[in-house]
Amino acid sequence: MTRLAHLSDIHLTAPNLEWTRADWFNKRLAAWANLRLLGRAKRFRHSERVIDRLMGELRQRSVEHIVFSGDATALGFASEMRRAAEFLQIAELPGLAVPGNHDYCTIPAARTGDFERVFAPWQQGRRVDGAIYPFAQRVGDAWLVAVNSCTGNRWAWDASGAAGLEQRQRLARLLETLPPGPRILVTHFPVSLASGKKERGYRGLRDLAELVDVAQRGNVTLWLHGHRHRAYYLPQPPHAPFPVVCAGSATQIGAWSYYEYTFKDAALTALRRHYNFDKNVFEDAESFQIQLT
Known about the structure:
This protein is of the alpha/beta class and 293 residues long.
């Protein structure tokens, strides 16, 4: 039996951020206004306490591998990434990480490669042509396949992403060459909202249909993601031929939870654990089973 933890969207920030003059003329200014003036900081004000408790719990529950589906930061600064990596204990625990749209807050932030450098311990795996994305990790009987669905965007309102043609082509080749075992795709962006409807264009995957097609042809049997802060499970989403699980946010007040997956062969049991602030503990919330065939 293999035990995984799936968490996402912790949105940590740091005391000293590396602001430059250019940051006041790009998307980061709008992200800062959302954080400081429009309530995001208030919704995530207990993030460090919750993550500290969560990581202690994962050790107590003998979780073997962590799947992190993006948005470690609030504004995409390297100092935020380093702080998030420290709280997530990436140097001590095995895991897989993909960036979120906040980690790629601006076009320059995406180009720096800061996320990939900081989270390098959780980005080890099989690759095609030496490219960073996609990559695959063998965990138990299954393959976790990481795809970067995020892009640096120019406009303040644009929170969309895309895998891109070249990464989709590498993904097809990677899936073709993986040894037998269930394939679980990990991205930041969702396939569908909890309602089953597509994400709005300015918040969704611009090449969703193309990426789903590659995943289907590559025998992917489960898609894990974050981006939306309320956790949900879609056993038969209208836009994909396989189940989808959104981890939600591990740290947003009221939504705070994560998933624990245990599986053997092709049988996976998912358990959502929800944070109880008054007791400072995570408690069972709901469970379901998925056949990875």
